[in-house]
Design goal:
With 546 residues, this protein is an alpha+beta fold. 62% of the residues lie in helices and 8% in strands. It is built from 17 helices and seven strands. The strands form two sheets. It has a five-stranded mixed sheet with strand order 2-4-5-7-6. Strands 1-3 form a two-stranded antiparallel sheet.
Length: 546
């Protein structure tokens, strides 16, 4: 099955494209300037860099075409901070490549922006944040070292700080922004729900502020509140709550409050990033887990309801078949007695009428059998009583059963068979059902005069029955639907064709129950159709024992 990519590739109109570039660029620049105001060392070290999350979401939602807007905004941000205009340009390239790489990795992993699966959460953490942001950290750190702004001995520390800040921007900001998008799988929150989420986020922010005002390192007491928000509101409550708590923590670190009062820069970074990672994992993973569990429970309930409905339908069909089967069997028996003359010689003019009645009785019986098998297939896989059987005998029996109807329609029906037995491992009764359906279809859609041929070919380990007619053939659209349940072929020359539309569907299931394959071998509009029933040959020792 083809994987749906997570990156938008729709080409917008020119004015829409430039408007998107402007909106993305301005949003990126404003977020960057605000983030620098929360730097632990003014204008230099930021524990979280929200522009990376903004850039990643912009690419996921709007497509790769917004990359120039990201690059220009990143250059404008880094120009007054970078070592030179050239250095700022290289840093901007790294800041643009990182979300592009993350978006591509997420697309290849089958990421869904709804974040309603555990695999989406894991992909965003591992690929979007941890792996993708290595690009910007590597480019930026190398530029600072090569320009002499940072000593070469500090390359590893600089890379770690840069990578951590960019990764935190993805982990905390991207889920929040993705949560604001219209969801296909979740209903809108509504004003009341949005107000509840806002109150919860504000309350968590207040609790976080209080916890960071003392030196007893109680900040992790906010995690149960974050987890409760994730459990109650899923990602819609967890993402804003985690973001607010992180901003409050960073503000406390900048101002040296509580546990940050006497810490060094490195200690502040470690404390903040440990707290931010705990926030993102507690909120993000728990929300995804609860979503996935709820979906599984819903699917389980739907499956149970469907199973009960299928069982009830199967029971109803079985009862109906039993009720109809008895009078139909009596009718068929009396027709056979009349046709055989056992009730006395029948007038010659009755012959055609009796043949038509016998054909229609057989047709009703076949429809009932198809309905029963289709209902059983829905309830559980079909079973077969397989044993060695001469395929020639099955073919000849099916052709003889169809001969009365062929004679009524003036059809030429014949079987081409080898003189040697063709032993296959199969259920003879089920093979007969398959051939009855194939021959019936061939006679139904045959041209005038109808002609139908049945032949058998053998290979090293397989035998194939070919049923070929000179009928109207099938169009390309019909070929894709012929094995679907309740599908009936449509052709203007025939108008409304009677039948249940289950014959080919049931026949394919019966073939698979016998480890065989039923396929459309050839068809062409106006030139007829050929079906192939492929079956395994019986093992020699099984034939001998039989």
């Amino acid at each position: 099955m083809a994987m749906k990519r997570a990156v938008n590739t729709v080409i917008p109109k020119p004015w829409q494209y430039f408007l998107r570039l402007a909106l993305v660029g301005v949003t990126y620049w404003v977020a960057a300037r605000l983030s620098l105001n929360l730097a632990l060392v003014h204008g230099q070290v930021t524990p979280i860099w929200p522009p990376t999350g903004i850039a990643l979401v912009a690419i996921l939602v709007l497509g790769r075409g917004v990359a120039p807007g990201i690059a220009l905004a990143a250059f404008a941000v880094n120009l007054p901070l970078g070592p030179s205009a050239l250095g700022a340009a290289f840093i901007a390239v790294g800041n643009t490549l990182a979300p592009l790489v993350s978006a591509e990795l997420l697309a290849r992993a089958g990421f869904r922006p709804e974040l309603d699966r555990m695999r989406d959460a894991a992909a965003l953490i591992l690929l979007g944040a941890l792996v993708g942001m290595m690009v910007s950290a590597t480019v930026g750190s190398l530029v600072l070292v090569l320009s002499g702004t940072v000593p070469a001995t500090n390359l590893a520390a600089t890379w770690a700080v840069w990578w951590t800040g960019d990764a935190m921007g993805v982990l905390l900001v991207a889920p929040f922004l993705l949560n604001l998008l219209p969801h296909r799988v979740a209903p809108p929150l509504g004003w009341r729900g949005a107000a509840e989420v806002a109150i919860v986020a504000a309350g968590i922010g207040l609790v976080t502020y209080i916890l960071f005002q003392n030196r007893y390192r109680l900040e992790y007491l906010v995690l149960p509140l974050i987890m409760a928000a994730a459990w109650r509101y899923r990602l819609r409550g967890a993402a804003p709550a985690a973001l607010v708590a992180s901003i409050v923590a960073i503000w406390s670190a900048v101002n040296g409050n509580g546990p940050f009062a006497h810490e060094t820069l490195l200690e502040k970074m470690v404390t903040l990033q440990a707290f931010n990672v705990s926030l993102s994992l507690a909120s993000f993973l728990l929300a995804s887990f609860v979503d996935a569990r709820e979906k599984n429970e819903q699917m389980s309930r739907l499956y149970q309801s469907a199973s009960l409905a299928i069982a009830a339908k199967t029971d109803a069909i079985n009862v109906a078949a039993q009720e109809l089967g008895a009078p139909l069997a009596v009718l068929t028996s009396y027709l056979a007695l009349l046709a055989d003359g056992k009730l006395g010689p029948a007038p010659a003019r009755w012959t055609a009428v009796l043949n038509v009645m016998a054909d229609k009785a057989w047709h009703v019986n076949r429809i009932m059998s198809d309905l029963l098998d289709a209902a059983r297939i829905e309830a559980h896989p079909l079973k077969s009583k397989r044993s060695p059987v001469d395929l020639r005998e099955v073919v000849l029996s099916a052709v003889e059963r169809a001969r009365p109807r062929a004679e009524l329609n003036g059809a030429d029906i014949a079987a081409t068979l080898d003189s040697e037995p063709v032993e296959v491992e199969a259920d003879a009764r089920q093979l007969g059902r398959i051939l009855d359906n194939l021959i019936h279809n061939g006679l139904t859609y045959a041209a005038r005069p109808p002609r139908l041929r049945v032949s058998v070919t053998t290979g090293a380990a397989r035998a194939v029955v070919h049923v070929t007619d000179n009928g109207v053939g099938m169009s390309e659209s019909e070929r894709a639907r012929i094995f679907r349940p309740f599908h009936r072929g449509k052709d203007p020359a025939f108008g409304s064709v009677p039948g249940s539309g289950l014959g080919l569907y049931v026949s394919r299931q019966l073939a698979e129950a016998n480890e065989g394959k039923l396929t459309l071998e050839r068809t062409e509009v106006g030139l007829g159709t050929s079906f192939a029933l492929d079956l395994p040959l019986a093992r020699p020792e099984a034939v001998k024992s039989n």
